Amino acid sequence: MRALSPDLNATKESKVKARRTFFRNAFGLGAGILSASELTRGKPTAAPPVLVQTPDVKDLPFTTDNGVKVFHLVAEPVRQQLAPNRTVDLWGFNGSAPGPTIQITQGDRVRIIVDNHLPEPTSMHWHGFEIPHNMDGGPGISQDPIAPGGRFTYEFTLNQAGTFFYHSHMAMQEMMGMLGAFIMHPKTPYTPPVDKDFVLMLQEYAVLPNNPVPNSMNMEFNWLVLNGKAGPATTPLIVRLGDRVRIRMINLGMDHHPIHLHGHTFRTTGTEAGRIPEAVWIPGNTVLVGVAQARDIELVANNPGDWMLHCHLPHHMMNQMSSNVGPMTRRGPGMPMGVDMNQGMGMLNGSPGAPTGEDYGPSLGRGMGVGSTNDQPVANTPLSAEKEDSTMPGMQMDQDVAKNANQVPGFPQDAFMEGPMMAMDKMVERPQNYGLRPGWSGFMQGMMTFLRVLPPDQYDKVMQQINRGQPASMPDMPDMPGMHHPM
Ligand SMILES: [Cu+2]
User: Fold this and answer.
1) Ligand 1 mean position, distance from CA 358 (Å)
2) pLDDT, tens only, 211-230
3) What's the gap in Å between 293 CA and the centre of ligand 1?
């Protein structure tokens, strides 16, 4: 039995070692290391596949038992920090949501032990796998649900290749985070080979203010995450100028996400069912990743810069969506409890007659009418300096707005969307962010990250820091030091 843990944050040396171990395991060799030429015998143009990197998510190690790769997944409640000062209670696997990434090679036989540490039954579905029906994880259909405290062992041979995923097949549990990537590397490597291969999982949560548990029934999502992190807490994808890059995106949620990359044209090269033949690769700079779908894109990173990679739905490029919940997102008196619908939820009417008036508690919902006379005073944040000071002590909030701003229909929009005025570079500091333009973090929210295409010297500098393992600092700080106005 040999444990494998390709730790992507490890030193270069240990990474090389892990990669060798991976290939040794992947190709079923107990001893000896195959050279690249041996691996690709008869295919001189093909290099061995690189392991995928899933920023902010670990890989799942495995052991081997008579040639079977054995994985162990634990379904459990997890605490997940989506962004500084926003830690929520999700359900996931092995300590995170999404759960750890599984990487295997086409042809592998795998055994996956699933333990249920949730307070209710669950199931594990292998999305798109061509496996026997009794391994499909359909609760009540192909098997009994896995009882709380129970275990189910799945075992099957995988002859497919591509970007796959696993998820709970209990619908509401999916919306609590229960997803993970399952990458099947092809037996014969794809051509052309890529230098970097990334996985991004797209999820969304509706989290009411002052409440750490997502409302899985809600249709309005205010936290949009990539690999469990919302911008600016997402970890950028780091590539060297000239690299060929693959980015695999997986969507499990209630919305489709048009993912847009700046500065490059890519080809869509794969779906949730595997590789698309090269003759029908589609060029684009935006790819729609629908619910339950995966899309692989590939590009040559030939344009240096810190390029935004993000969902283009405007509401998915924000955090908190405080427009609808007003001052309750702040540290104030908290959510009023035990009052009637009018007083407690602002559902009927009140003073000054705004359904989401400042005096009432929050509700997420459409049509709150930013720009109307009534809603202006409470649109996105308390607009008076006194109110602001009282609700956000310690926060520097210089507001660059015109003197007559309140007379302009439509005001406020982005100036008060918690973005431009709330840069937090220091709070999300990590090696991958090294050298970004000061104040950048005020403009990266929700389903947003970077593809950083770095010239060799900058690339080496960032990689040095990554290899040194400089820790990311994202503390929950009561007074939010480190926040600053970027202007
Ligand atoms: Cu989106």
Assistant:
1) 29
2) 889 988 888 898 999 999 99
3) 13
pLDDT in tens, 244-255: 999 999 999 999
The verdict on pTM exceeding 0.85 is no
DSSP codes, 6-74: --TTS-HHHHHHHHHHHHHHHTT-SSS---HHHHTTT-TTPPPPPPPB-TTSPBPPBEEETTEEEEEEE
The answer to whether the beta carbons of residues 292 and 128 sit under 8 Å apart is no
Q: What is the distance in A from the centroid of ligand 1 to the CA of 313?
A: 5
300 half-sphere exposure, CB direction, 13 A CA radius:
3
Q: Which helix (H) or strand (E) holds 173?
A: helix 171-174
**Residue ranges per structural domain of the chain:** 12-316, 323-417
Residue 341 pLDDT: 52
**3-state SS class at 316:** helix
Minimum mean pLDDT range among 54-58, 103-107, 341-345, 359-363: 359-363
Instruction: Select 12-316's CATH number: 2.60.40.420, 1.10.1670.10, 3.30.70.100, 2.60.120.10.
Output: 2.60.40.420
How remote is the CA of residue 161 from the centroid of ligand 1, in Å? 26
Distance 171 CA to ligand 1 centre (A): 20
CA of 325 to the centre of ligand 1 (A): 20
Residue 433 Cα to ligand 1 middle (Å): 23
